[in-house]
């Protein structure tokens, strides 16, 4: 997809989301919040994992750090500063993690990132219990669901703009080359370490901001809620299903899956799991290259 | 259970039709989002869901909910699974209120999820009958959410009632003053142990061990070995269902026989008694019921018949009682939610756990310490009709 | 003796961890199926043991004799029906990994959903062989000791099977390099199916044994999947002794940190240890750098 | 001053000394042939120069700077480009994009858009004119080799390392290939080529270094060095020669 069309499409869709808000009502807004949240997370995930093919399960770690940033700082400083802090914290932690994991590849990286998210969760719990005297934190910040809705639109626009910019930039080229053949990339003059860490940080920073945006919606967070590993898995599955190789791929996984969850949830609460699993299996067998792959084949 | 109509994703049109048609005579629609799956499913399926089902069935078999004027209206249920996730719970409640347009929403299981949906219920003007939501900050919460009612009180009340019970045993039965504490690293566990530690110190007990362990940990042999070495008179674990069982079993393996053995959440589960059989005897835990009450006995019998197992001896009867409060309030003022919130906050209700009257949206007086005595988890501490403590706890027997 | 208590409980726990991971070493290490539904199969075996014990009065040790072959067959079918199409269409190991993650994620929900419909979401637990055994003056539950002992036995048997038999050599060849294995005339598809099914039989064994002391419900599968994945990765993919070593290390670390450090940190210590080992040896303790 | 000087370079794998005290120098503008029986350490030497492997000891002086401990990417940026013995292209990227990667990150880095503008000219030069939009993975083996060379050239290197780039070409292609390398050298690019095709070595290289068992055993003009008794012995002693 060429850039003017892509950017125009992002702007138009974002505009449509914003315009439609007054007519939504809480239910539809709630559904769209869910879709927007996963769009931002899955696109941010694919920003790094798509081109490098490093499958990360650390989404929940960065999301949770963002949520905790809100819990700790939400009442202490102006909101824009809180979101900025979340972005910085996510990026810094990701940089440290990125630098330490460069020797890992394939499934070792996958499980490492999962272990990392769990380690952070355990440490946060322990530190809260030991020094905070509590494990749950209340998030009473004057942020309404409508505010969250608009902030998520902004986050989505930001992540698409970021992705668009990265793709055209030297960084994006570097990552595609790394994903194709890391050895060639190195010998072509690409600082593989720097490129990977940089993008991992950018991607994590978006995830943290999303966590920070979402936290007030739940009034209460603890480590189990904020660092829920389901978030990592759901993001991974959505992005892979949509197709992580394209910037617009993950959203093609997010939207149908979110709607599928919703339909099954609303109509079959007692058989939700079975049906979800069955539909999932069917999709894996019938849509082997992701939704984006399906679209490209048709074209 | 009654027939259930659910709005699929679209659903706007059908919801609109219903809202005009059912206004006065149709069924009363009650919705809930509950953790059928995920980490909370264990608790939700013991304490909350069975009681919702039992109550709906009981009411409908009696002809429906009584509304002012004497008419009865059937209950129609809309239910969702929140998969133990806060975001799903929020969305489900949003959907129940705004899409399915239910008349009332019953709360999910657990403090985290209750607080997550608290803001939505507050915005929607729905009464929030929070039961399985126990935290120290309830007084602050009811300021923010005057529609919310907390039926199980604050964490510190549980710990303080336990310490009072222990003091009674010290005075009357010669219980010593050494205590070993273990607590799960979870909000409730931490609040319990913080309050418990302070109360124990005030009461002059000597804490010889004070350990925490992570949520979900079922391998607690080192912890119990340490407790056994400390050889205290009293062992208190502010624990959760899976680890409550693990701690008890490990104590038995280690032949650790303090004179008071207390494990918190899950002790009151029928599962506990089923697994430990005669060894459950004398184990104390959070909760407890007044087994002398015929209404409780009737409730236990109905629960056993409908659900297929007895209820737990702590939050189950209170959950059921919270529904009775709702039922009686509806009979008084009908389905106007604002009037209903006022009625629940100011009325006195006769329930299976006795008379309930809210003080600042909280139920204060209730049994807090239970003990397995025979087949029953009886109330031995806190407020209400209490049974004398069986002391000391008999030593573990070989399985 | 304090130290004996700690080390002994650590070793027993480690054995149980190894037991949980043993099936996945075969399923992922040999058959290359990253089985996210692994824990659901473990839980299903827990339920099978529970039903056999509480309804039919069959004790869990005898239940093994039923559950293992049954699970072998079921897992063979799962491989034949769900995995074969993926194996056939995957151009490389990476693609198969992604596909198997997605497919077994679906399978996870199906198995969990079926368990939920049958058993509901409540906790289950029963008591069998919950009697203390005195070892060096320290009390260990017999059921846990037995589970750990069987883990050790399975690990050794598997090791011998893989190292000393013709079939084992073939299975190892498939694990190391499927393409070359095919060149030397090994029917890789059959051996992969065999390894997956054998892994399934071991899942059943661990589920049955763990059910003797573990309180479980239908939603707890993920706990086992994650534990197993961590142990398999830490030991080195496809390495049975690696899994045993990793399990024992984690068990000991957990007991030692509970005994000497802070019982609230046990899980954190485990994850930290896992991460540290991967940073030190990026392909696990016994893994060879391949890719 | 020499453009590249290897001083006493060594590298072992386990007990095997793959490169053992290797020293030689390349003057600017030269085409140096690096020959020797299979397993004599030629590719390892290239890998040491480009930073793909780290030397155990010794120095690699490029344009006056020791790069023996530099990372591959900084060596590439310093002006050394290479091709690989087993051809490596970025298969799902287009042909033009493969070339662009060389230009974007090479010795004279440029913006991606500019790199894409430059790609067609390079593709024309190596004989893939007008095929820039095709995916690189679809190319024949020989064309992939061409593409690798284009990618290396796009980096505008001062030193180009060719690892058996002419291997497997038919006589016509070989002629073209030799002409191409000659034209590259004529542009002032210094070249080190590892090669088994002796006719090409004789046609292109003013000087060769002969390796055996990780050591330099002869050096000089192709005719002189290849007739060295030590070289003959090395080749005759090797079944693969």
Strand order of the largest sheet of chain A: 1-2
Radius of gyration of chain A (Å): 19 Å
SSE order of chain C, one letter for each helix or strand: HHHHEEHHHHHHH
Oligomer: heterotetramer
By CATH, the architecture of chain C is named Orthogonal Bundle
Determine the mean pLDDT of chain C.
88
Per the CATH scheme, the topology name of chain C is ABC transporter involved in vitamin B12 uptake, BtuC
Low-confidence stretches of chain A: none
Q: Please write the CATH class name of chain C.
A: Mainly Alpha
Proportion of beta-strand residues of chain C: under 5%
Approximate helicity band of chain C: over 70%
Largest sheet, strands/sense/barrel of chain A: 2 strands, antiparallel
General form of chain C? globular
Rounded average pLDDT of chain A: 89
Compact summary:
The complex is a heterotetramer of chains A (299), B (399), C (291) and D (241). Chain B has 399 residues and is α/β, with parallel strands linked by helices.
Structural description of this entry:
The complex is a heterotetramer of chains A (299), B (399), C (291) and D (241). Chain A has 299 residues and is an all-alpha fold. Chain A has 14 helices and two strands, in the order H-H-H-H-H-E-H-H-H-H-E-H-H-H-H-H. Chain A has one domain (3-227). Chain A has helices at 3-20, 25-52, 59-73, 79-100, 106-132, 145-168, 170-180, 182-187, 192-214, 223-226, 229-242, 249-267, 272-286, 290-298; strands at 137-138, 220-221. Chain A has a two-stranded antiparallel sheet with strand order 1-2. Chain A is globular, with a radius of gyration of 19 Å. Chain B is α/β, with parallel strands linked by helices and 399 residues long. Helix content of chain B is 43%, strand content 20%. Chain B has 13 helices and 16 strands. In chain B, the strands form six sheets. Chain B has a four-stranded parallel beta sheet with strand order 9-8-10-11, with helices on both faces. A three-stranded parallel beta sheet of chain B has the order 4-1-5, sandwiched between helices. In chain B, strands 12-15-16 form a three-stranded antiparallel beta sheet. In chain B, helix 2 (41-61) runs parallel beside helix 12, helix 3 (86-98) packs parallel to helix 4 (111-124) and helix 12 packs across helix 13 (337-346). The model of chain B is unreliable at 1-22 (pLDDT under 50). Chain D has 241 residues and is of the alpha/beta class. Chain D contains nine helices and ten strands. In chain D, helix 3 crosses helix 4, helix 3 (95-105) packs parallel to helix 5 and helix 4 (112-126) crosses helix 5 (141-154). The mean pLDDT of chain D is 91. Classes of the chains: A mainly alpha (299), B alpha/beta (399), C mainly alpha (291), D alpha/beta (241). Chains A and C meet through helix 5, helix 11 and helix 13 of A and helix 3, helix 4, helix 9 and helix 11 of C.
């Amino acid at each position: 997809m060429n850039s003017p069309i892509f950017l125009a499409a992002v702007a138009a869709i974002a505009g449509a989301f914003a315009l439609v808000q007054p007519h939504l009502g809480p239910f539809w807004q709630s559904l769209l919040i869910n879709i927007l949240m996963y769009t931002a997370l899955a696109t941010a995930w694919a920003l790094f994992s798509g081109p490098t093919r490093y499958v990360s399960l650390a989404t929940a770690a960065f999301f949770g750090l963002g949520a905790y940033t809100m819990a700790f700082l939400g009442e202490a400083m102006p909101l824009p500063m809180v979101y900025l802090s979340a972005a910085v914290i996510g990026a810094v932690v990701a940089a440290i993690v990125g630098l330490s994991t460069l020797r890992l590849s394939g499934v070792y990286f996958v499980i490492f990132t999962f272990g990392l998210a769990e380690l952070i969760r355990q440490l946060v719990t322990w530190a809260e219990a030991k020094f905070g005297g509590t494990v749950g934190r209340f998030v009473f910040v004057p942020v309404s669901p409508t505010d969250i809705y608009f902030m998520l639109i902004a986050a989505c626009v930001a992540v698409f703009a970021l992705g668009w910019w990265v793709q055209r930039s030297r960084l994006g080229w570097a990552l595609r080359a790394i994903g194709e053949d890391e050895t060639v990339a190195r010998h072509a003059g690409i600082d593989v370490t720097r490129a990977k860490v940089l993008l991992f940080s950018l991607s994590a920073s978006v995830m943290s901001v999303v966590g920070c945006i979402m936290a007030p919606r739940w009034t209460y967070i603890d480590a189990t809620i904020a660092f829920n590993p389901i978030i990592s898995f759901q993001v991974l599955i959505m992005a892979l299903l949509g197709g992580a190789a394209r910037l617009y791929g993950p959203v093609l996984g997010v939207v149908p899956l979110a709607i599928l969850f919703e339909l099954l949830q609303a109509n079959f609460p007692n058989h939700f799991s079975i049906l979800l699993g069955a539909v999932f299996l069917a999709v894996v067998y019938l849509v082997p290259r992701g939704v984006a792959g399906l679209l490209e084949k048709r074209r | 259970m009654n027939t259930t109509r659910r709005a699929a994703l679209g659903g706007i049109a059908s919801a609109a039709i219903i809202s005009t048609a059912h206004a006065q005579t149709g069924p009363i629609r009650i919705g809930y989002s509950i953790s059928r799956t995920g980490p909370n499913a264990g608790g939700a399926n013991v304490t909350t869901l069975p009681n919702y089902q039992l109550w709906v069935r009981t009411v409908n078999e009696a002809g429906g909910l009584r509304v002012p004027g004497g008419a009865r209206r059937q209950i129609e249920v809309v239910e969702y699974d929140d998969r133990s996730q806060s975001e799903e719970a929020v969305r489900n409640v949003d959907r129940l209120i705004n899409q399915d347009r239910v008349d009332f929403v019953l709360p999910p299981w657990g403090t985290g999820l209750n607080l997550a949906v608290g803001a939505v219920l507050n915005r929607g003007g729905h009464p929030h009958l929070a039961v399985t939501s126990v935290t120290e900050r309830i007084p602050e919460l009811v300021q923010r959410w005057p529609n919310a009612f907390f039926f199980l009180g604050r964490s510190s009340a549980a710990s303080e009632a336990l310490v009072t019970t222990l003091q009674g045993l010290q005075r009357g039965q010669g219980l010593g003053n050494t205590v070993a504490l273990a607590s799960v690293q979870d909000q409730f566990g931490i609040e319990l142990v913080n309050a418990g530690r302070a109360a124990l110190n005030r009461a002059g007990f000597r804490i010889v061990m004070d350990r925490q362990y992570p949520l979900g940990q079922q391998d607690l042999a080192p912890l119990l070995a340490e407790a056994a070495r400390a050889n205290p008179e009293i062992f208190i674990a502010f624990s959760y269902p899976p680890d409550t069982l693990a701690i008890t079993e490990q104590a038995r393996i280690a032949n650790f026989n303090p004179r008071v053995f207390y494990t918190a959440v899950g002790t009151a589960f029928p599962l506990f008694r089923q697994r430990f059989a005669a060894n459950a005897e004398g184990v104390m835990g959070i909760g407890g019921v007044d087994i002398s009450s015929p209404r409780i006995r009737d409730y236990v019998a109905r629960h056993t018949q409908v659900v297929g197992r007895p209820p737990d001896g702590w939050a189950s009867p209170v959950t059921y009682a919270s529904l009775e409060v709702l039922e009686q309030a509806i009979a008084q003022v009908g389905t106007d939610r604002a009037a209903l919130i006022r009625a629940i906050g100011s009325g006195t209700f006769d329930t299976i756990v006795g008379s309930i009257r809210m003080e600042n949206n909280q139920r204060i007086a209730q049994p807090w310490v239970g003990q397995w005595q025979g087949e029953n988890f009886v109330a031995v501490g806190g407020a209400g009709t209490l049974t004398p403590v069986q002391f000391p706890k008999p030593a573990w027997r070989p399985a | 003796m304090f130290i004996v208590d700690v080390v002994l409980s650590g070793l027993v726990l480690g054995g149980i961890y190894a037991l949980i991971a043993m099936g996945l070493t075969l399923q992922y290490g040999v058959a290359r199926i990253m089985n996210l539904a692994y824990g659901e199969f473990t839980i299903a075996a827990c339920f099978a043991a529970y039903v056999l014990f509480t309804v039919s009065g069959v004790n869990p040790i005898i239940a093994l004799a039923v559950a293992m072959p049954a699970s072998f067959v079921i897992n063979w079918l799962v491989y034949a029906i769900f995995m074969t199409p993926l194996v056939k269409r995957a151009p490389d190991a990476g693609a198969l990994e992604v596909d198997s993650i997605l497919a077994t994620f679906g399978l996870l929900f199906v198995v969990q959903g079926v368990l939920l419909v049958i058993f509901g979401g409540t906790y289950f637990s029963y008591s069998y062989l919950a009697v203390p055994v005195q070892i060096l003056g320290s009390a260990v539950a017999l059921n846990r000791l037995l589970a750990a002992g069987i883990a050790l036995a399975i690990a050794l048997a598997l090791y011998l099977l893989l190292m000393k038999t013709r079939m084992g050599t073939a299975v190892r060849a498939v694990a190391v390099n499927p393409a070359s294995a095919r060149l030397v005339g090994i029917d890789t598809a059959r051996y992969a199916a065999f390894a997956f099914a054998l892994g399934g039989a071991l899942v059943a064994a661990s589920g049955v044994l763990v059910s003797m002391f573990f309180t479980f419900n239908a939603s707890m599968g993920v706990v086992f999947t994650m534990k197993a994945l961590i142990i398999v990765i830490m030991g080195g993919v496809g390495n049975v002794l690696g899994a045993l070593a990793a399990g024992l290390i984690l068990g000991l670390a957990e007991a030692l940190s509970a005994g000497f450090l802070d019982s609230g940190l046990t899980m954190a210590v485990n994850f930290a240890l896992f991460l540290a080992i991967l940073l030190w040896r990026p392909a696990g303790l016994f893994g060879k750098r391949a890719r | 001053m020499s453009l590249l000087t290897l001083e006493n370079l060594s590298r072992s794998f386990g007990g095997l000394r793959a490169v053992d005290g290797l020293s030689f120098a390349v003057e600017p503008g030269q085409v140096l042939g690096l020959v020797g029986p299979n397993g004599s350490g030629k590719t390892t030497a290239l890998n040491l120069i480009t930073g793909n492997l780290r030397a155990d000891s010794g120095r690699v002086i490029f344009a006056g700077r020791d790069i023996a401990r530099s990372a591959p990417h900084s060596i590439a940026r310093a002006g050394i480009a290479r091709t690989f013995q087993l051809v490596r292209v970025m298969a799902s990227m287009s042909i033009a994009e493969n070339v662009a990667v060389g230009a974007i990150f090479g010795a004279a880095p440029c913006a991606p858009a500019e790199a894409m503008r430059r790609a067609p000219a390079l593709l024309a030069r190596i004989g893939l004119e007008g095929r820039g939009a095709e995916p690189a993975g679809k190319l024949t083996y020989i064309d992939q080799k061409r593409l690798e060379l284009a990618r290396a050239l796009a980096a505008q290197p001062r030193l180009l390392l060719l690892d058996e780039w002419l291997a497997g070409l038919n006589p016509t292609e070989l002629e073209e290939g030799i002409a191409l390398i000659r034209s590259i050298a004529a542009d002032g690019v210094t070249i080190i080529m590892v090669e088994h095709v002796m006719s090409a070595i004789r046609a292109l290289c003013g000087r060769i270094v002969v390796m055996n068992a990780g050591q330099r055993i002869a050096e000089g003009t192709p005719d002189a060095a290849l007739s060295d008794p030590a070289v003959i012995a090395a080749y005759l002693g090797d079944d693969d020669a």
